[in-house]
Design a protein that fits this description.
By secondary structure, the protein is of the alpha/beta class. The chain has 15 helices and 21 strands. A hairpin with a 4-residue loop joins strand 14 and strand 15. It is globular and about 65 Å long.
């Protein structure tokens, strides 16, 4: 395999993906010629174009621009989500080196100390939180993020002075096994992507294989209860449970969310968290442990946590008034939905909650139908959108209507996206949640505009 330094051009197939676009921004910053294909225009592809990256939305087949047609000068980076594409076939059949995003990320991070954030849930928020804390401190970092940071307004952060690179270590397609992290946080190992791994045991083994790759001189920060081992020193964390780093006394006062920390050496009171939620308090504990290992002071850590604004589509407030609150969240697994709804109930204990959920993938809906029904039944009103298929074909009997039947609340229905917006457009009070990882984000702005009138 040739090194990245030998290429003048980088061509992306699926450039608009959140992980792919971060890589595109990295190579663009390095001064290489960057271009690529994606299926449809999005706000993210618009941003890439504004930054000088050429993006097209039609399959060019063999009609690749001349400057990218030399295999010795052009590296092709592709996403596994790509199905039939003439451009992919052209590159494959004409001697180009094609690498998955994770392979390229692995090559980049081997030239720095990689700080991996892995887990079925919480990767993006935790990696973005860690990136913000580090960049507000004397340590700094580079980062490839799986979401748009509200502090940086980007998914790629660069530092010319830091030796650290924050990496979102994705378990999908076993991508994280391409990485060689110096240290890592693992937030959760709840089974997911069983269409790829086959069963929960094999899924867990993937995480153990990842943990085995952590540098023995680094560190593994592990949520208490996860059955993983490492040759690196291991630190556990938990909320209201005995662990190396324990968070307790979570409270909301005057709209400020805070907790206390107890560890062998630290007893910190009233740590203010810029992002509310029980799961975000857990993420903060993991970041505190990592940052202390990397040499940050208590003052630096407290400031970073207090000023962290979160990630787009992760517990993101769209409307926040005394009577009406609208929150948009990327949750697409039952455990994530549980954390979201439990956090909303902690923050707004006496409010009525309406949840609009778009199931993501037929296989995930099938694998966790009972768990989805159990968690979604905790809202007061439930609207389900049709299942977002992503890379999959429909499965017989796996529909939003079937899921709805299993939900035990009385006020429930399946609607198309526009009908859901129309139904809720006159609401003046309560809590509204849009939940899901598909294209439910397309209704966020229209719904926000109608609710704000």
């Amino acid at each position: 395999m040739r090194t990245l330094e030998t290429y003048k051009n980088i061509y992306f197939l699926g450039i608009g993906g959140i992980g792919m676009s971060a890589l595109a921004r990295y190579f663009n910053m390095k001064g290489l010629c960057v271009s690529g294909y994606d299926k449809t225009p999005t706000p993210l592809t618009n941003e890439l174009q504004k930054e000088g990256i050429e993006v097209h939305f039609e399959d060019l087949g063999s009609q690749i621009p001349t400057k990218f047609a030399n295999p010795s000068e052009t590296l092709v980076v592709y996403t596994p989500a790509i199905k039939k594409l003439g451009e992919f076939d052209f590159f494959k059949n004409n001697g180009f080196q094609l690498l998955k995003r994770a392979e390229v990320l692995g090559l980049i991070t081997r030239t720095s100390k990689g700080l991996g954030i892995a887990g079925t849930h919480g990767k993006t928020t935790t990696s973005t939180m860690l990136t913000h804390i580090l960049n507000e401190s004397h340590v700094k970092c580079n980062a490839f993020l799986g979401g748009i940071s509200s502090n940086f307004n980007t998914n790629f952060v660069a530092s010319k002075t830091s030796e650290f690179t924050v990496i979102e270590a994705d378990e999908f397609d076993r991508s994280f096994l391409q990485l060689s992290p110096f240290g890592s946080i693992i937030t959760s190992t709840d089974a997911d992507h069983l269409d790829i791994y086959g069963d929960a045991y094999t899924f867990l083994q993937g995480f153990q294989d990842y943990a085995n790759q952590i540098n023995p001189e680094g560190i593994l920060i592990l949520k208490k209860g996860l059955n993983l081992t490492s040759s690196a020193p291991t630190i556990s964390y938990a909320i209201n449970d005995e662990a190396d780093f324990k968070g307790e006394n979570l409270k909301v006062e005057a709209g400020i969310f805070s907790m206390d920390l107890i560890s062998e050496k630290q007893k910190w009171k009233n740590i203010e968290l810029g992002l509310p939620g029980i799961h975000n308090a857990e993420n903060a504990l993991a970041c505190i442990a990592f940052c202390l290992f990397l040499g940050l002071s208590e003052e630096e850590i407290r400031f970073g946590l207090k000023t962290f604004k979160g990630v787009k589509r992760r517990f993101e407030y769209q409307i926040r008034t005394p009577k009406l609150v609208y929150i948009d969240d990327y949750a697409h697994h039952p455990t994530e939905i549980k954390a979201l709804i439990d956090s909303v109930k902690l923050l707004y204990p006496n409010q009525t909650i309406t949840g609009i959920f778009q199931p993501h993938l037929f296989s995930r809906t099938k694998d966790f139908m009972n768990d989805f029904a159990q968690e979604l039944s905790k809202v007061d009103e439930l609207i389900l959108l049709p299942i977002y298929p992503a890379r999959e074909e429909p499965m017989e009997g796996i529909t939003s209507e079937a899921l709805l039947e299993m939900c035990t609340l009385n006020d429930k229905k399946v609607l198309l996206p526009n009908d859901a917006v129309s139904l809720l457009s006159k609401r003046t009070e309560g809590i509204i949640l849009t939940i899901g990882a598909g294209d439910i984000d397309r209704i966020v702005l229209p719904l926000k505009e109608k609710l704000s009138r």
